[in-house]
Predict the structure.
Amino acid sequence: EARNRLASWTDDKIKDVVEELVAIGEKPSHPGGLDAWPFGGVAMRNPDLPPPAIVRKPKPRSWEKTLQAATLLHTELSAYNAWGLSTETRALHLKVAEGLVELIPGEMAFNRDWFLTVAYIYHGSNLSVSLHYLEEVARRFPDDAEILLATGVTNETAAAFEKDRGMIRDAETFYRRALQADSDLEEAHLRLGKVLQERGGNRAEEAIRELEWIVKHSSDPYLLYLANLFLGDLHKREKRFNRAVECYRAAVESEPRWQTAHISLSYSLRAAGDGAAAREVMQKALRLPVHDTDYVDGYRLYALGQLNRVPQMLDELRRGIME
């Protein structure tokens, strides 16, 4: 029955992996069966395909690949509350996934990416779990710039929720370490500048240097938007409104759909004495489709932290299994 249900999955390679898991007795515990299990958070079932009478025999696959597939299966079941599983059951699936990772021989790249992915997933629901997995992967890869950056982001996010100034200092430390490991890591420059801005005091000039590094070196509209937005905030705080206007205009040019920079630009134009331009910009801001279901401002994306990386990381893990 399970094999027949697998026939409705559209990705043949995913069928190969899961069929092999069925053969060795490993299967997801979703009560709807295998055809209700979404691999990578996206349902792969195609109800328009009639179930064929025969499911082809799976191709030979290494034991390492099977362990990797089982690890991802349990990770998915633990991470997303789409199956009505209890908190205890989901925690058990995560423990199983972690145990399976340790069984994979000679797969340090997979192990590293798995720990990072789990940390990214839990960034949105349990920051302490996220930090636990980051600490574990950092112990194994102490000089990895991406891991150091992710640990900084998690500390920065936790500091905002916990109102913990110690964690914001920790975030600064991790961003500096990330840049020591990779001086061209753009997001580390951006986030170091933002953290220095948040910490205040005599850190404003260094914050400006970090954010201007992004403006000079990056071609990513998202990073350019945020760097100019944060630069505008720094200048506005010091009542340099004309300079703030320049930065906010640059942010709007980088990404015209996002409202935050429009509103900040309007405020600074009014403070600089140009009320007519301020009203015009505010009218544009109010016409933006902020109530659309798929609208997310860049500032909100920044606050989401590592959640933005989850789909990409899961895709990379999947591709490694399917090769």
Observations:
- Residues 1-15, 21-60 have pLDDT under 50 and may be disordered.
- The first helix runs from residue 2 to 6.
- The CA atoms of residues 13 and 255 lie 38 Å apart.
